Amino acid sequence: MDIKHLHYFIEVAVRKSFTKAAHHLYVTQPTISKMVRDIEDELGMVLLDRTGKEIELTDAGRIVFEQSQKIVQSFAHLSDELGNLTHAKRGKLTIGLPPMIGYKFFPNILSQFRNEYPGIDLNIAEYGAKKVADSVAEGLLEVGVTVGEFNDELFHSFVFFEDKLRLVAHKSSPLAKMTHVNLFDLRNEPFILFPEEFSLHGMIIACCEKAGYQPHIVFESSQWEFMVKMVSEKFGVALLPESILKKVEKEIDSIVTLPIENSELNWRLSMIWERNHYLSYAARTWVAKTRMLLKDCHVN
């Protein structure tokens, strides 16, 4: 049994299909089936239950799967470490960026990074901020951007932007006549929020609950432009970062934006990476480069 055997087994376990795993690895199904069978024969145990519509791990298979992931990851880290000895500017890096944040802050940074480090295979995982943090903690992403509070015992980080949230309401709403609002003023309003995997979703709900009510959510979207458009159609109210709303009131005359008084809600953006975990050359380069480029950043 070697690393390739373990890698093939992991792919079958994750995709629950020999066919899908073979397609992903660009090998034939008999090849990957033989690899997995070799492992089972060597260990003297059945690792995969092949009787259902989807392949499932047996009890022994789950143990082998967990250990195989650690072995494959350790082997990858060994390769990266050896590459670092020669200061080779190559490697692979997947970065987690929430859609709104990626769109506003990173196009130019990504372009500069790719031009300066063409040997680094750079990939973007467009996840909500909560999922980014979870994925970094689970080792599925090396680095990413998240919003608001997180467990600083799990992550190294640096904050690169902070902003207040504002209320977005239709100009016909009684709220539009106010100079500012507090969260309690919104207790009877229909809310338009980001989906659950976005950190702002949980932050807004928690602050509303602290104000004494459970917000009535009528619509969820991962696109802030769509959220604003729904407000302009009198579908509900939204809470969005002040900086991304600078041009909105001028461009959409059917809405108003208002400051939220005494609110703990803010849009604090942090680059995070896992503590006590090997960080590849590519990831270390990304952290150093973005720390410099995002210093004193602003939204265009």
Automatic annotation (TrEMBL):
It comes from the Bacteria. InterPro entries: HTH-type_LysR_regulators, LysR_HTH_N, LysR_subst-bd, WH-like_DNA-bd_sf, WH_DNA-bd_sf. GO terms for molecular function: DNA binding; DNA-binding transcription factor activity. Keywords: DNA-binding, Transcription, Transcription regulation. Residues 1-58 form the HTH lysR-type domain. It holds the Pfam family LysR_substrate. GO terms for cellular component: cytosol. The keyword Transcription applies. Gene3D superfamilies: 3.40.190.290, Winged helix-like DNA-binding domain superfamily/Winged helix DNA-binding domain. PROSITE patterns: HTH_LYSR (PS50931). Belongs to the LysR transcriptional regulatory family. This is LysR family transcriptional regulator.
